[in-house]
């Protein structure tokens, strides 16, 4: 077998999707603990506060070196190499989350046993469904009183429209939690609380008829036997093909904080989750085993490390391999670049990567030429598809306190917008800079960073824009007419694409009616 095939088959690249507070951070820590990347555990926890308060988030921003390493975590597990891509927890960062989900091969869904399916999980599932991403499910917090396990499965099936195949089953819950039963191996794994950083596992009892079960579970042993019979009859069998198609999710139960049920999950994950899969480009389907290198950028983060003051573009390797010093074609700008200092994310320090394989994420230093969605190849004209920009719903004008700093402001704004969390619009009619975002926190962050990183004191103020649409028209003449008539409402985005800024929804509807041959697009695919 070729080295490429061997390496790519070891790779598992995934993200955790969940509603805030379900236990994503805790589970991540435990996964890293099992993966032997223990020093990362504290890092993840430290970042945690960022999910909740603006001020904390900004403080964390100062420690950018930390947040970048934890946004991609690579660790070995058994024979496998696991790449875990973190998705920002805050509602405001959903665009970044969506794009991150385009870079994974599968996802792990965490559900709080007391709360069941929550709003953000529903949204994230919708995104996963666009690419039929295979999903594994972990029902968390069994050490607390929650809902009946069958109830939870029903809810997942109904609300998320995906079949459930339980792989482990809880024995008791809350104070009565005794363990989980593994339906594949007929093994009972007894619960023992292990707070903190230790890996300790409870007793394993093989066989459902094992008399030892009666000794430790008492009356619950027979209850378990009956329940398992019921569960086997009532739920879907584990069908890995259906899992691979995104139609069925294998379900695990446990308690992340107690490190319980996590090993079962990770073992199964490495076994079931898909290795890097073929991907669509505008030109053709690219197989990861293609010898020629290719990859795309799904995220850009600026000034991550104050001592480096640079921007890093995150690239998912899709085919072939990266080796240090190789030449790549940056397809959009048609240039060949030599990459000798890509970074990898194996520990909580930056390390220069010697090689990377399909499924891996590498970080490229970006001096302003790389954009989200860009494809890199070994020469072929390819364009990876499906990395979206969404029309923002919130808009603010950036106003300088010191007008002489205009140049610095423009530079800062354009660079921040390259990261994709905020977008910039420059009206054709004047020199305003209008920021658009999906969440209001983004504006504060932008102002804070303009000051901290570019030395520009700016405030953001209300502006009468309620929504934006990218404007496309096949008929060049018609487009010219439109540009004249709608001049007042038109702007250019950070990539010089034409955008219609609508003061009201009604105004947008009227414009759409009046110009039936003009397309008003709510997303721009890169
Ligand atoms: P995230 O917002 O999804 O990243 O959630 P966290 O991992 O930060 O967890 C949210 C809260 O739930 C924290 O207070 C955790 O300590 C707690 N938590 C996580 N896992 C468990 C668990 O298995 N049992 C209990 N009782 N609490 C948990």
From TrEMBL:
Keywords: Cytoplasm, GTP-binding, Nucleotide-binding, Protein biosynthesis
Binding site for GTP: 18-25, 86-90, 140-143
The keyword Cytoplasm appears for this protein: yes
UniProt GO cellular component terms: cytosol
Name of a matching Pfam family: EF-G_D2
Example GO BP: regulation of translational termination
NCBIfam families: prfC (TIGR00503), PRK00741.1 (NF001964), small_GTP (TIGR00231)
HAMAP family xrefs: Rel_fac_3
Name this protein carries in UniProt: Peptide chain release factor 3
Organism annotation: Sedimenticola selenatireducens
Lineage: Bacteria, Pseudomonadati, Pseudomonadota, Gammaproteobacteria, Chromatiales
Gene giving rise to this polypeptide: prfC
């Amino acid at each position: 077998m070729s080295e490429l095939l061997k390496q790519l088959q070891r790779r598992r690249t995934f993200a955790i999707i969940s509603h805030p507070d379900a236990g994503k951070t805790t589970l991540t820590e435990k996964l890293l603990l099992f993966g032997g990347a223990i020093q990362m555990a504290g890092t993840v926890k430290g970042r945690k506060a960022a999910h909740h308060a603006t001020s904390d988030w900004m403080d964390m921003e100062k420690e950018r070196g930390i947040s970048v390493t934890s946004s991609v975590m690579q660790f070995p597990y058994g024979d496998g190499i696991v790449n875990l891509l973190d998705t920002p927890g805050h509602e405001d960062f959903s665009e970044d989350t969506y794009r991150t989900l385009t870079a994974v091969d599968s996802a792990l869904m965490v559900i709080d046993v007391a709360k069941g399916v929550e709003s953000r999980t529903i949204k994230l599932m919708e995104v996963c469904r666009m690419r039929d991403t295979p999903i594994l499910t972990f029902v968390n917090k069994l050490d607390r009183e929650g809902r009946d396990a069958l109830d939870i499965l029903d809810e997942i099936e109904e609300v998320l429209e995906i079949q459930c195949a339980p792989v482990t089953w809880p024995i008791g819950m809350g104070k009565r939690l005794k363990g989980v039963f593994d339906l594949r191996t007929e093994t009972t794994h007894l619960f023992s609380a292990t707070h903190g950083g230790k890996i300790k596992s409870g007793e394993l009892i093989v066989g459902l008829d094992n008399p030892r079960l009666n000794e430790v579970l008492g009356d619950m042993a027979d209850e378990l036997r009956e329940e398992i019979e019921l569960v086997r009859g009532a739920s879907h069998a584990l069908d890995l093909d259906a899992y691979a198609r995104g139609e069925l999710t294998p379900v695990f139960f446990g308690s992340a904080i107690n490190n319980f049920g996590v090993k079962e999950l990770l073992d199964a994950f490495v076994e079931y989750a898909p290795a890097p899969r073929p991907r669509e480009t505008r030109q053709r389907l690219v197989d990861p085993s293609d010898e020629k290198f290719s990859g795309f950028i799904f995220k850009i983060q600026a000034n991550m490390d104050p001592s480096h003051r640079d921007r890093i573009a995150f690239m998912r390797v899709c085919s072939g391999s990266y080796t240090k010093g190789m030449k790549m074609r940056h397809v959009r700008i048609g240039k060949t670049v030599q990459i000798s200092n890509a970074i990898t994310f194996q520990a909580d320090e930056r390390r220069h990567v010697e090689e990377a394989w399909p499924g891996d994420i590498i970080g490229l230093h970006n001096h302003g030429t790389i954009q989200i969605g860009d494809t890199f190849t070994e020469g072929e004209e390819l364009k990876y598809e499906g990395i979206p920009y969404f029309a923002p719903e919130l808009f603010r004008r950036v106003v300088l306190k010191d007008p002489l700093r205009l140049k610095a402001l423009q530079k800062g704004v354009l660079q921040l917008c390259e990261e994709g969390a905020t977008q910039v619009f420059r009206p054709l009619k004047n020199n305003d800079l209008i920021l658009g975002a999906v969440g209001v926190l983004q504006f504060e962050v932008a102002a804070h960073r303009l000051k901290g990183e570019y030395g520009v004191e700016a405030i953001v103020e209300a502006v009468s824009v309620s929504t934006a649409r990218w404007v496309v028209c096949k008929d060049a003449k018609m487009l010219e007419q439109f540009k004249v008539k709608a001049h007042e409402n038109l702007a250019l985005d950070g990539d010089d694409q034409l955008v219609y800024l609508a003061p009201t929804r009604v105004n947008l509807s009227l414009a759409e009616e009046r110009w039936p041959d003009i397309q008003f697009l709510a997303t721009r695919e890169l």
